[in-house]
Amino acid sequence: MDRIAIIGAGNVGATASHIVVQKELANVVLVDIAAGVAKGKSMDKMQAMAIHGSHMTIHGTGDFSEIAGSSLVVVTAGFPRGPGMSRDELLKKNAAVIKSVAGHIKDYAPEAIVIVVTNPLDEMTTLGKTVTGLPRARVFGMGGVLDTGRFVYFISQKFGVKPAAVKAAVIGVHGDKMIPLVNLATVDGRPIKEMVGADELAELAERTRYGGAEIISHLEKGSAFYGPGAGIAKMVEAVLHDTKETLPCSVCLEGEYGISGVCLGVPAVIGRQGIEKVVDIPLTATEAATLKESAENVRSALEGLDAESP
Fold it and tell me: Which part of the chain is CATH 3.40.50.720?
């Protein structure tokens, strides 16, 4: 049975670990610098598994050496974006976290596949790949699965259908410039662009872009974690079960879509080896331009970070 590590025992990491063991995908080691939090949450979850009947285990620890032997490492550690915090401030704080975590991965789990969840996602995924030195097939980010889930949900609500009837995807940066592919979205095989007008399509896209902010506005404190946890578990399953599913995720591009050197959300085939193939899909001129603009923004943010390093 596979063993995976989840680094970060906050709401997202803890939720992901719960779903992974409940679905019996793998045993989990949950790591956090606050060892007591990791241990306490793991104990709580193991008692829940006794109720669920799952035979998988979650082990909580503050010792990073215990990630050794993990097939896959999920990185959720980092600071949330708090009130009044700029994107640049979040970038600097979480860059330090990712550099530290990537060092532990190099030391203890150099053969693992790495899924980055820490925000700002595309910058942190690019940085994680750079610091670990791993091939792009083995370092990628979870953002597109979550954004696509939100898009699918909003479409299903709009048309009064079950989410399973909807086929849709979101690509690009995991942020305000993400690209919900409204022209390719369907309900029961019928393009939604044939079912509603341009204004309604734009509203669906806009609500998707700010889906996370909408949740925060209701919570008032904290942010989404059930959706992100489910997105992580979906990607873990794709890797460990070698499903060969095409899922949108942040991949370090090597010329695809005319972009190189940074990670952005694109459709990719995921299996036991990680990213097996980046899928080329047709984009409108506006979508292609937005994707390239986002790539330059990610690149500029990371270059600014390097310029400030001692």
Answer: 3-141
The domain covering 3-141 belongs, at the CATH homologous superfamily level, to NAD(P)-binding Rossmann-like Domain (3.40.50.720)
In whole angstroms, give the CA distance from residue 75 to residue 256.
25
Question: What are 191's two structure tokens?
Answer: 């393009």
The CA angle 25-31-34, to the nearest 5 degrees, is 145
In sequence order, the 6+-apart residues with CB closer than 8 A to the CB of 163 are: 152, 153, 156
Burial of residue 148, with CB atoms counted within 10 A of its CB: 0-12 exposed, 13-18 middle, 19 or more buried: buried
Contact 113, 105 (CB under 8 A): no
Catalytic residues: 174
DSSP summary character for residue 172 = B
In what helix (H) or strand (E) does residue 297 lie, and over which residues does it extend?
A: helix 285-308
What architecture is domain 144-305?
Alpha-Beta Complex (3.90)
* Per-residue model confidence as pLDDT tens digits over 86-121: 777 889 999 999 999 999 999 999 999 999 999 999
pTM greater than 0.85 = yes
